[in-house]
Target: FUSC family protein
Amino acid sequence: MTWLRAFGEVVRSGLKIEETRLEPLLALRAAAGLAIVIGATLWLVSPAYAASAALGAYSAGGATFQRSWRPRKVVALGAGAGLALSTFVGYLAAGRLVTFLPLLALWAFVAGMAWAVGSTAGIVAATTVGSMLVTITLPTSVGRALEHAGVIALGGVAQAVLILLFPVRRWGAHRDALADALAAVADYARRLRHDPTAPFDPEPLMTARDAAAVTPSQARTRPPVLHGPRGLAERIRPVVAALADPDVGAPAEGPGRDRARELLDAVADVLDAAARSIRHGTPAEVRPESADVLRVDEEHEVLEGPARQAAERLVELLGEALDIAGTGGARAEAPTPPGLAGARFLVRPTLFKLVPVVVVAVRRELRRDSPVFRHAVRLAAVATVGYLIAARLPLGHGYWAPIASVMVMRPDFHRTYARAVARLAGTLVGVALATGVVRAWGTDAHLSAVPAIVSAGLSYTLNRTGYAYSQCFTAAYVVFLLGMGGQAWEQTVPERVVLTLLGGALAMLAYVVYPAWETPRLPGRLADWLAADGRYAAAVLRSHARPTREHRVDMRRALLASRDAQAAWQKAYEQARREPVGPRGLTSREAEDAQEALKRFGRAAMLMESHVPRADSRFASEAERLAEALEADTEQAAEDVREHRNPDWGRVEEALHAWQGSALGTGSPVVRREAELEKRALEDLATAVSRTPLERDVGPAREEQRVRATLAAEDDGPGPAHRGG
Model:
C-alpha cells in the first residue's frame, strides 16, 4: 500500500463511527462521580484544587470503560493511584530541565512498556504521563504537591465508591463475553446450513475464556451461570461442523441433508436463546418447533454412521443449553470453592501476585525488534522532544503538545495515525463548541463547572463510538475546566489547536523515523501458526491412538495455543495490509493463500477431534506414527517458512501411505478422510509459500517490482472472493 492510500485509509478509520452498544448508565455514573468531586472541591477549597480533583475523577472514570475483566472499582482505584503518584513525582523533579526531562523520558518509557501487560494497562499508563505534564504547573510547594496528589487520588476513590454503591450490570462484561461466544456458535450453525465448510472465527471463544479467568475473591461471587456454558459452546462447535460436512457427516443431498439443516437451525435457535438468557439473566423462550427437531427417533432417523453419532451427541449437548435458556442460568453448575478443585478454575492472579507476571511480560518485550519496546522508545522520545519544542514556542500551556502525542500513540502504525487524525478533528470541533459557550456564559468557575460535567458525560457516552467523537467532548471539557480555573478562552483555544496539531505531527513522524512494521514479521507469524497447528493435529491423533485423560488435556492445550497463534497472525496480517511498505517475504496473494490453507488444515483437525473415541483405539500405532510425522514436518516447515525455503512433507506422506495400507482402510472413515484433507492443505500451503531458485535469489528491488505489479492487477480486477478470511 502506498503512503497516499494508507493515509486515506487512516482518515476514513479515524473518522469512522463504530456500531456499538452505548452504555448511558455507566456514563451517567462516571459523570456523577466527576460532579461530586468538582462540586465538593469548589465549595470547600478552590478552583485550582477542583481542577486537580477533576483530572483524577475524569481519568479514573474513563479507565473503567476500558476492556478489563477485573472489577471496575479496582481499575478506578488503580488509575487514581497512578495519576496521584505521577503528579507528586513530577513535581519533585519540576523546575529544572536537567531533572524533569530524564524523569519524563523514563516515565514515558515505562508507560509504553505497560502495553506488554495489555491494552488497558498501556492506556491507563499513558494518562499518568499526561498527568505529570499538566499538574506540575499547579502546586507551588512540596506540601501543596502532596495535597494535589491526594485530591487526584480522591477522584479515583470517589469513582470506586460510586461503583460499589450503585452497581450497573454487575458482571455485565463477563455475561456479554459468554453470550457472544454462544451467539457466535449459533451464527456458525446457521451459516453451515448453506455452506457446509464455512469458516469459524474463534475470537469470541477466546474472549470468553479470558473473561472466565477469575481471582479467588471473584470466584466466590461469580454468578453460577458464568461457570459452565463456555465449555458447552466449545463442545458444540466441532460437532455441528462434523454434522454439516458432506464428506464425514450428512450427505450432500437428500433426506439426510434436510435433517441436518433442521438440526442446525434448531442449534442456532437454542444457542441464541441461551445467549439471551445469560446476557440478561432471565429465562428465554425456545421455539417449540426447535425442541421437536431435537428429538431423535431411533426407528425413523434418516442419518447414519458418523452423521447419526454427531446428531445424537448434538442433542445431548443442546439439552444443557435448553436448561440454561429455560431457567435463566439459575440451575447452572455453581462454582467450586477455591482449593477444592482448583483445576476447574481459570485462575487470574491478584494484584499482588500480578507483579511477577508483569515483570516476566515486560522482560519478554525488552528486545529491539519488539513492537512494544519500540513503542516505549518512541513514547519517551516524543514526550521529551514535544515538551522542549512547546516550551520554546510563544504559547502558553505547552504541555498540550506532548500530551496529544502520548495519548494518540499506539504500538502499531494504523491506530497511531488514525487517532492523530481523529484527535485533531475532535479537538477542532470541541474547541469551537466550547468557545461559543464560554463566550456566552463567561469564565465563572461555578458556571463553567456545569458544561464541563456535561461534556465529560457525553465523552463517556461516546467512548466506544469512535475516538474523534469522544475527543470532541473531551476537548470541550478541557476548555471548560480551564475556564473554571479562570483561564480566558482567547488564551486557551488557539494554543490548544496549534499544540494538538504539533503533538499529532510528532507522533506521526516518530513512527516514520522508528517504525515497528508488521509486514516483515508475517513469515514468522505464519510459521508460528503452522507449528502450533501441527502440534494440535498431532495431539488429536494421539488422542485417537490412546484416548486417555492426559492426551485430552494435551489436545485442549494445543488447541488453545493454535488459536493464540492464529489470532497473532490475523492481527499482524490486518496491520500489514494497512502499512505503507512493500511485501517482504510474503506477497498479499501468498499470505491469503497460505492463510486459507492453514484454516483448512485446522478445520480438518477439528473435525477429527469431534470423533475422538471414548474407548481404546484399534489403530494406535498407525495414528501415533502419523502424529510424530505431522509434528516433525510442521516444525521443520515452520523453520523453512522463516528462512524462505520450500517446505517438504516427506515424513507425513510416508506415514499416511503406510497407514492407508494397513488399519486405516478398515478403521474410521472420518479419520481417513480428515488425514487426507490435512495432507492436501499442507500441500497447498507449500505451493503458496514456495519459491523457485530464481525467485529466492532476486534482490529486494526485483521483489518489490513484482509485488507492485501484482497489487496493480488486483486493483484493476474485482479481487479474490475470499479476501479477509
